[in-house]
Write a structure and sequence with these properties.
Blueprint: H1 14-20, H2 32-45, H3 47-56, E1 66-70, H4 76-84, E2 89-94, H5 97-109, E3 116-120, E4 133-139, H6 148-157, E5 159-168, E6 172-175, H7 188-206, H8 217-223, E7 227-238, H9 244-260, H10 267-277, E8 293-303
Parallel strand pairs: 1-2, 1-4, 2-3, 4-5
Antiparallel strand pairs: 5-8, 6-8, 7-8
Helix pairs in contact: 3-4, 9-10
Length: 305
């Protein structure tokens, strides 16, 4: 199946672990030993997609000196940015110190301690300690902040003159199965979409200082004092037959979403999901030959000055 919601399907790190954080504000009950590797596996699936996005950003920042990956998790995208921009220093910014420890360990293993650093900070209150950057990558982290406009203004303040924000928000909900899978009612994924929308709306409402805002991301960038320079969507297209890593990812995601929506999906849909998760069922995600992963991630670029 897919991620929590169409807002969170990008397979980078920020989106997954923010949900694991109970929206980024409570970290006490997280199994970090499991969370870090899971985020990194998910990010690996989207590495080519994120690399394509980063290459597009050369349009506005051909040689940034300092890049910050906001909501970095354990830094999968941070290291990709260091690869795509070989002259840049990169700061992985995240509230979760255990994930940043993984980023520092990887930097040490790969001999990149002089180029990849970390900063423990919540968005937006901790962002003031971030040095002025030439490029800010904000991968599905903004919508986990109650006041998104205030957070975007704080981020814009951390841009150097001529700097750019790459805001990854929106896109299209992932699909991984045919509409009719041969059992249960057709259209299971669209019903998950509706459950995800309800979950996401409640998540937003429960955030500290939550403020409703029209999700017109270019307009929000403009309101933050930036020039909206471009918007583009990038495909994640992993057709059947998928790799074992993709199949494992899809099983893990569907299992998590079943737990999330167990009280809102009807009995027939839950029975369908249970068949899809049953490793002994030839029609399950574990064995089906028609499983794929297709989604789109939208990037909005705002430039300072």
């Amino acid at each position: 199946m897919a991620h929590d919601h169409d807002h969170d399907h990008g397979h980078g790190e920020a989106q997954g672990h923010k949900h694991g954080h109970k929206h980024g504000h409570h970290h006490d009950d997280i199994d970090w030993a499991t969370m870090g590797p899971m985020l990194e596996r998910n990010a690996q699936l989207a590495a080519d997609q994120n690399r394509e996005i980063a290459a597009w950003l050369h349009t506005w920042q051909p040689e940034p000196a300092l890049i910050a990956d906001v909501g970095a998790g354990s830094g999968s995208v941070s290291f990709l940015l260091a690869e795509v921009f070989p002259k840049a220093e990169v700061i992985a910014v995240d509230p979760a110190e255990p994930l940043l420890e993984r980023a520092r360990a990887r930097a040490d293993r790969e001999g990149l301690t002089d180029r990849v650093a970390t900063l423990q900070a919540e968005l937006p209150e901790g962002i003031g300690s971030l040095p002025q950057a030439d490029l800010l990558w904000i991968g599905r982290a903004l919508h986990h902040v109650g006041d998104q406009q205030a957070a975007l203004a704080a981020l814009a303040d951390r841009l150097a003159p001529g700097g750019a924000i790459a805001l990854l928000e929106g896109g299209l909900t992932p699909r991984s199965l045919p509409r009719d899978i041969g059992f249960g009612r057709p259209g299971l994924q669209t019903r998950f979409d509706a459950a995800d929308d309800r979950w996401f709306t409640q998540m937003r409402a429960d955030l500290p200082g939550a403020k409703a805002v029209t999700e017109d991301w270019p307009a929000l960038l403009t309101e933050a004092g930036l020039r909206h320079a471009g918007t583009r969507s990038f495909l994640l297209d992993l057709p059947a037959p998928v790799s074992e890593a993709t199949r494992t990812h899809l099983v893990t995601e569907l299992s998590r979403r079943r737990e999330m929506h167990a009280e809102t999906l009807d009995a027939e849909d839950l029975a369908t999901v249970d068949r899809l998760l049953d490793a002994n069922d030839e029609q399950s995600l574990h064995h089906r030959p028609d499983v794929f992963l297709l989604s789109a991630q939208t990037v909005h670029v705002g430039v300072k000055g």
